Amino acid sequence: MRKLSLDNLNRLSVDDFKDAEKFPYCLILDDIRSLNNVGSVFRTADAFRAQKVYLCGITGQPPHRDITKTALGATESVDWQYVTDVVALVQQLQADGWIVAAIEQADGSTLLSDFQPEPNKPYAFVLGNEVAGVREEIVQLANVVLEIPQFGTKHSLNVAVTTGIVCWDFLQKM
């Protein structure tokens, strides 16, 4: 066994990525203050072929050197859009047939381990501020609230880590 070089990985070019079929989900980042987290989410969205990343509220937007540093080019491959009003975005996605899933600890949440995506339905995963989480109004609007089971003394995960877990879980269950 040997470690593969970048040339051995046969990665898609940016143009090929843009033309490739995407998985039926998007990510909504609402009020993410860390530009490094934003860049990391772009890399995850590229790795797991998200349809789109929506940047809302105070969430930083490319181009910015801190986003670019952690995104490693994913801001060029992943489709993204800045939207000022996250509530209006969620309502529009729902009207268009998307299932909106807030990633939050809440009464009545569904553990991610118990979550079964509906077949042939697109999902929008909402990730909130690093301190305050997903805003209450979005938790109330969401079709489902998903919670990642945790077993240690801390009861929160970094938003970029959370994104990776949610995307991987979703694709495994599709």
Give the low-pLDDT segments.
none
Strand order of the largest sheet: 3-2-1-6-4-7-5
- Which H/E pattern describes the elements? HEHEHHEHEEEHEH
Summarize the biggest pleated sheet.
7 strands, parallel
> What would you call the quaternary organization?
single chain
**Helix/strand/pairing class, anyone?**
alpha/beta
User: How many domains, as an integer?
Assistant: 1
List the helices and strands and how they pair.
Elements: H1 14-19, E1 25-30, H2 35-47, E2 52-56, H3 65-71, H4 74-77, E3 80-83, H5 86-95, E4 99-103, E5 110-111, E6 123-127, H6 136-141, E7 144-147, H7 159-173
Helix pairs in contact: 2-3, 2-7
Structure description:
It is a single chain. The protein is globular, with a radius of gyration of 16 Å. Strand 1, helix 2 and strand 2 form a beta-alpha-beta unit. It has a seven-stranded parallel beta sheet, sandwiched between helices. It is built from seven helices and seven strands, in the order H-E-H-E-H-H-E-H-E-E-E-H-E-H. The protein has one domain: 3-Layer(aba) Sandwich (Alpha/beta knot). Helix 2 runs parallel beside helix 7. The protein has 174 residues and is an alpha/beta fold. This is RNA methyltransferase. Keywords: Methyltransferase, Transferase. One of its GO terms (molecular function) is RNA binding. Pfam families: SpoU_methylase.
